[in-house]
Amino acid sequence: KELRLGMSAPEATPWGAAAKAMAAKVAELSGGELTISLYFNNELGDGQTMARQIARGRLDMGVLSNVEASLVLPEYGLLNAPYLFTSEKQADCVIDNHVGATFDAAFRKAGAVYLAPIEVGDMMIMAKSPFRLPSDIAREKIRTSPAPTDTYYVQATGAEAVPLSVPETMPALKTGAVVAITTPIIMGVAGGYWAEAPDFIMTDHSHQIGALLLSRTTWDRLDESQRNALTEGAKAMSGLRQGVRAAEKALLAKATAGGAHVIELTPEEKAAWMAVAPAAQAKIVASIGGDAGEVWAKLQAASAACAN
Amino acid sequence: MMAYIVVAALLIGDVLAREVVGIPILGSQSIAVLGAIVAGFVGLSLATASGSHLRPAVFDGLVPSSLDRYVDRGSDLIAAAFYLAIAVFAVRFVLESMSAGDRAAVLYFPLWPIQMVMPYAFLSCAIRHAAYAMEPALKVHHEAAA
Amino acid sequence: MATLFLVLLIFGLLFFRQNIVVLLLAATAYVHLVWGDGKIEYLVEDMWISLNSEALLSIPMFLIVGNIMTQGAIARRLIRIMVLISGPLPGGMGVATILSCAIFAAISGSSPVTLLAIGTILYPALLEQGYDKRFALGSITSGGTLGIVIPPSIPLIVYGLATEQSISDLFIAGIVPGLMLTAALATYSLWVNRHLPSRRFESSELVSALREGIWALLLPVILLGGIYSGYFTATEAAAVAVLYALFVEIVIHRELSWRDFRATTVSTARMLGMLFPIIAVALSLKSLLTIMRVPHELTQWIIELTTNKYLFLILVNLLLLVVGCFFDVISAILILAPLLLMPATALGINPVHFGVMMVINLEIGFLTPPVGMNLFVAMTAFREKFSTVCIAVLPFMLIILCVLLLVAFVPQISLLLL
Ligand code: NA
Ligand code: NA
């Protein structure tokens, strides 16, 4: 049986490598009975389209970003809320021990099987000039991804959020329509935005968690051993954690060598960025609606349990 | 037409909100896109109504012109049946979308009410062609030939 | 057997005088049934997806602007100025057409949009000034494609994202080839129209035309200024243009009635309704071909065929020309750029140079049947036969092809400013 897996990332990225490892593992575990065909670079349509097609059963599987997976289950977007996690260790602990329990059933109900969380990496702000505090960018225009989490956080900092799609981002930086952008580290550096925005403010305001989703329609057609092969094989995606962090380091080093500046914040400066998060979090929970309040309480409890 | 006014108003509203008031309208672009989709499907049935779709006329000479009336009626009948079939599949698509909970980006509202424009557009094309098959005089004649 | 039935189906529909939309949709539905997943719902979904794109949003907007300008007085007044300025040069308006396309292209980043915005004003003007219809159609339809080479260019951004190349470098690398293309097309217009009579320069007439046309002239100024100063994006510019054009025609020129405006939006919706099913069919077929890995296998085949750098470049360009016939630029880049770049860099080809070459090559795809976006847009907007448009763009296509060869084999052209 052949399953189609679509993703936005190119083949030569940590996500491409992890997907290939998973496909190999699934083939091995199922004794060749289940093969996964990989389609990179949005070959099967953009992430939003893939997300909807998984829920509807046209596409079998997808490696989706948090924003895309949130189209299947809006509450999943809460994982992106600013400073839900204050350290990488805390994030890892929540993802390893609590995320499945929080979202498995809800994804099932929404038509998808949640096979694995997908590490996308930390967020930073890339700017045309160096700054360290939210007050430095008051009323400046900052590009956000067109999603509630990112946009409401930037608004809470006192800056002017300008939600822009990826193709519109570079022209906006070039013309000065925005003076900075929020972005996951890898996408920001690899996208070449640092030619226009060479100052990287390492706010780490959110730890991006995507999802490996399988269509429930597909799941229902598989037998027990095939399902086991998939759930076991999906564990190969946990290798992404190392892969993504190594890629972040390598890309930041490459950009620094090319003239970009990485601005690490002091604990006091970081505290100023965190101080504005609660207002944004409340607004995000309200805007998502549905079970968002309940899920948010669970995530905060998980986050607290992982604090040490 | 309303769809376009909504699209333009949203885009301009977004510019004004951002540049003058300083607060962007989150999701205005994706609503504008939905407006353009509705306009596209309404346009499909408008184009059918005015007979402005291009039509390859390569085989027109095969039939003696005395029989033209009958071929044209058959043509409308076939087109009506075709659009009716597509309308049925469009209904099935919307039902699937409804049960899967397809949502709009950013604002997360369900898409199926807007997707209803597809069965509507195809059905209106089917009805139009069926009417032409029964009463050819209804047809507006400015077909372009390619 | 299945293929035979497809051919029979098409012939049957042709015999029964079905229009192109029914024909294409029925054939694609059949393809979905036989070679795809067997669900016609997917074709319906692909029609939805084909319209569900922010990039496409500006097309109906610029269609409306074009219609408002032609219904009202903006277009007429702009053309008068253009004619007076370019009059002293034989074939001057042909050059003006190409340059207008290049300038507008620099704003919109989109081929069909450039075509529409420039074409709705200049196509009737060229005909009125005695230019050959074939030249007028060809220059506007192909001039529109300059939009994707001259930065900002959406395809170059996509290439940068797909291959992890610097988008700024790609933009800079696109400048010289873009200017070369513009110069080549402009030179051809001068040469082919050298026999057209030139007119004496009338300064007093120009001054009065300028005074009359000042509000119309402000339209491109506002668009360009707004985009380059960062007040709005290219998509939003289209909406601002609608608002401005309406304001000028209703309040200043007073030559557009509410009924005209209604008629304008209806005809725009109709144009889009004719256009998008064709785009939807292309999208639907593309996804089937991708699932069957047709582009991957073609690429693999080329890589195995040669290790000579120049032969590789020739083969890649041939492949891209073929792919460009069926795929849109964005999908072609997303699928092929990562596949082709690896062997290309192994042969010592600069990735930025390779990207610019790819985009120029795929630019030609806008002009090649069966799926040539600009061909369809021109056919729809100017109400000409598909075959007429295809023939009209031929000489321009050859020129672009020559520039492509230069850019492919002389990497310095793209890398000059880097
Ligand atoms: Na451009
Ligand atoms: Na083409």
From TrEMBL, chain B:
Q: A Pfam family in this protein?
A: DctQ
Summarize subunit and interaction data from the UniProt record for this chain. The complex comprises the extracytoplasmic solute receptor protein and the two transmembrane proteins.
Q: How does it sit in the membrane?
A: Multi-pass membrane protein
All copies of the Tripartite ATP-independent periplasmic transporters DctQ component domain together span 8-131
Protein name, entry field: TRAP transporter small permease protein
Can you tell me which family this protein belongs to?
Belongs to the TRAP transporter small permease family.
Q: Decide whether keyword Cell membrane is in the record.
A: yes
Automatic annotation (TrEMBL), chain C:
A Pfam family assignment: DctM
Chief localisation class: membrane
NCBIfam families, from UniProt? Answer: dctM
* Membrane topology designation: Multi-pass membrane protein
Keyword Cell inner membrane included in the entry's annotation: yes
TRAP C4-dicarboxylate transport system permease DctM subunit domain mapped to chain residues: 8-413
- Its biological purpose: Part of the tripartite ATP-independent periplasmic (TRAP) transport system.
Which regions span the lipid bilayer?
50-69, 81-105, 111-128, 135-158, 170-193, 214-247, 267-289, 310-340, 352-377, 389-410
Q: Which organism is it from?
A: Acidimangrovimonas pyrenivorans
Q: What is this protein called?
A: TRAP transporter large permease protein
Q: Where in the cell is it found?
A: Cell inner membrane
Cleavable signal peptide: none
- Subunit structure of this entry? The complex comprises the extracytoplasmic solute receptor protein and the two transmembrane proteins.
Entry keyword set: Cell inner membrane, Cell membrane, Membrane, Transmembrane, Transmembrane helix, Transport
Q: The organism's lineage?
A: Bacteria, Pseudomonadati, Pseudomonadota, Alphaproteobacteria, Rhodobacterales
Family membership: Belongs to the TRAP transporter large permease family.
The keyword Cell membrane is assigned to this record: yes
